[in-house]
Amino acid sequence: MKPVSLKKVAEVIGASLASGDPDAFADALAGGASIDSRTLREGDLFFAMKGQTDGAEFARDARERGGAATVADRPLDAVPTLVVEDVLDAMQKLARWNLVREDAGPPPTVVGITGTVGKTTTKDALAAILRHAGRKVSATAGNFNNEIGLPLTVLTADPKTEILVLEMGATHAGDISALCGIASPRVGVLTAISPVHLDSFETLEALAEAKGELAVCLPDDGSLVFPVDAPATATGSDRSLSRRISFGSEGANLWPSEVEETDEGIRFTANMDGESVEVRTPVFGTHLVQPILAAMGGGVSLGLTLEECANGVARLKRTGLRGELYRLKDGIVVYDDSYNASPAAVSAVLRYGAGQARQQKKRLVAVLGGMFELGPNARAYHREAGAHAAESGVDLLVCVGEEARWYAEAFPGETLFFEDAHSAAESLHESLAPGDFVVVKGSRGVGLDALTRELRERLALV
To answer: Lesser CB count within 10 Å: N end or C end of the chain?
Structure first.
């Protein structure tokens, strides 16, 4: 965010000024935002959010670390305070204004990315493509894709940003429309529609309609990139847009051929409008071809050539715990995709693991944590994944957590149960054999990253 006076901030967010220091607002400028005093940068506004703790309790610490002022719902002693009724609403208002302010030069082009799986990989790949093409890019960090994280991303973006790549998550109808109301996208990317958050949406049709809010919010001269098999409700099919790019299987505008895994990552040919280009990217897992195609479609929508997109994904670095491959002692290989899980994502990882185990003639071990937020059909989805594990040729199924027991109900082979990731981390290595290929997948709350970390330490190559 380009620095702005606290008086202007107060005007934008409708705040009154309160401070123990009468001169605190005279010439003070704010150049960013934070909700965590520990990571606050000098000049940031500290938004005192209320959650498990009251952010106002850390306002003094934020000030001592160089914070410009605190935005809170009440005056705070001896700390410059912008007093508002709703702190989150104030942060969103400031983010919205920051993208249209007249004193900051041309506003960045906003790319919105949503979908049930693949958002972060698509975001990382698109950012890599654009940076390699020489564009100044800011993108969502980690999983900051909700009503708090998105405005924070906007407010912490470099003032020189040309393209702002934003993940947009949704757990309820209207969530994506609200996010688009803060940062209006010109390009939308839908990665996939598959069962997730069904405790909120109840049906896949309702979920598709919620994800379709992105397409509905695009301007008439905007572009949408979407899976060729996505439901019409998810793609705003009745909207007249400047460009639509479908991706997926042959028959889409953009599709892959000659997909293979190498020691350096995945390789495939991307085909579009009679043009073909070889794509090599240093990530592992052929199921990642689809989100990479989605990112390439986003690059094309922003005026890049297919070849420029391929050159960019060659430099892709994924966010941690998403498809990291570790080679350990005794020929054991661990594929860590433990950041999160859904039925479609678990199936994709099982297919990948099965292919690699067959190719390398290894025993396949699947370590699966529970899949959360699946609603009343959660048990059925777990059983379906357990049956898929059997069909994929999993030799040993390791179930971590209570929900994970449902996998075993449809898996007839050898099974291990662990109450939690901590207990699995302590003893799973004893059940592994030389040459095993191990895939790890589960919802974030299971904490399987602790398990993979322990395996890497105990079975490290010396």
So the answer is: C
Examine residue 35 and state whether it is found in any structural domain, yes or no: yes
**Which pLDDT score, from 0 to 100, does residue 321 have?**
55
Q: How confident is the model at residue 290 (pLDDT cuts 50, 70, 90)?
A: very high
**196 and 127 share a domain?**
yes
The candidate with the shortest Cα–Cα distance to 126, out of 289, 282, 292, is: 292
**Long-range pairs of 77-81 with CB within 8 A, sequence gap ≥ 24:** 77/20, 78/20, 78/21, 79/19, 79/20, 80/6, 80/17, 80/18, 80/19, 80/21, 80/24, 80/25, 80/28, 81/17, 81/18, 81/19
Average pLDDT, integer, range 143-156: 93
- The pLDDT > 90 percentage for the chain reads 73
370-417 tens-digit pLDDT: 998 888 889 999 999 999 999 999 999 999 999 999 999 999 999 999
What whole-number distance in Å separates Cα of residue 183 and Cα of residue 170?
A: 15
Residues 363 and 441 in one domain: yes
Q: If you average pLDDT over every residue of the chain, what do you get?
A: 92
Structural domain contains residue 101: no
DSSP type of residue 108: P
Q: How many domains does the chain have?
A: 3
Question: CA nearest 441: which of 414, 393, 407, 412?
Answer: 407
Give the start-end residues of each E strand in 99-253. 109-114, 137-139, 163-167, 187-190, 223-227, 243-247
- 368 and 296 in a common domain: no
Model confidence, pTM: 0.82
Any domain includes 246: yes
Q: At 319, is the pLDDT very low, low, confident or very high (cuts 50, 70, 90)?
A: low
Same domain for 125 and 26 = no
User: Mean pLDDT throughout 188-208?
Assistant: 80
Q: What do you get for the CA distance between the two ends of the chain, in Å? A: 47
25 has pLDDT over 80: no
Mark whether 211 and 329 lie in a shared domain. Answer: no
Whether 60 and 206 share a structural domain: no
**Are 16 and 58 contained in the same domain?**
yes
Is residue 235 within 8 A of residue 224, CB to CB? The reply is yes
Domain coverage including residue 169:
108-313
